[in-house]
Prior knowledge:
Rossmann fold, 3 domains, 367 residues, single chain, six-stranded mixed β-sheet, alpha/beta
Amino acid sequence: MPGARQVGKTTLALQIAKNQTKPFLYLDMESRRDVAKLSDDLETFFEYHQDKLIVIDEIQAQPHLFSLLRSIIDKKCENGRFLLLGSATPALVKGVSESLTGRVSYADLQPLKCSEVHNVVGMEHHWYRGGFPLALLAANDAAFSDWTQSYIRTYVQSDLSQLFGYQLNPAISEKLLVMLANSHGQLLNYQDLARSIGVTSPVANRYTDFLEGAFLVYRLQPWFANVTKRLVKSPKLYIKDSGILHGLLSVESFGMLTLNPVIGASWEGYAIEQIICHKNQNLMPYFNRTHTGAEIDLLLIRAGKPVASIEIKYSNAPRVGKGFYVGISDLATTQNFVITPDSDTFPIHNAIVCNLKTFLEKFLPQL
């Protein structure tokens, strides 16, 4: 169960473990006491507890466990023996030589979705503060800002290096993260990023890999199956959680956000993240842009075929540009949407305008 720090992995895992019929054993690989339990004969330890569900938290802190678990799982192939939690993508962690392919099932734990908190807070509140529980439920905006600033500072100063086992430069990590926040929703250009923070393009690329591997950012890839068109092939970069984005940009209230030029990009990233979190697994997210200006903010693909084209607008009376309709024509999608914060549902040319809540509840499950 991979996911960012403080997203609620441990809380959920312990709840799952307590609801099992068999006993469980919880081990935190950032706890000296729990690591000491595994300091001797690891195979004997796991065999002794083979009747239990073993929850291993922050497993990336002990990368050698991946290889050992492969051997133990192969000796007794039985579902429900281990529940592994991690705050980093294993492929980027130094010392991990075993992926456990075919032996594990991944369930990425995202920040709280809007549908999970709609009985507690409104979408506006969730958009501004994001889905990290402590940020979302902070007593006031000042407490929210304090939490996000501390979270970001801890990540860049120590967590990234600890998670991946590399000595990363905190100054580079912080500058890059702030630059990426200011480029939220734009095409990713490593050369420009590198020049802005005074490093080489490979270094900027590598640090971005670590930030993505820590679930702080994500890259939305372009769809370019149509070889007859000159298409943009660089990914778009988004800060994954809208609350962290607003913390990086020092947006201290929703009122300040409404006056900030970033509001359009913030809404786009928030809407895309919510759609990705709610979509069926057989739908793959991309964007599409040609060099002539035709653009689809979010393109949903099933089995290699475009299914739905989505335009995202921060306006309840959206004006849709020609490029969207050209993109629809090129991709031949029959399900097309313009998503807004709070509009009614109505047709516009060959697309449907609706608010995000309606799209998630009514239209997305039908795609």
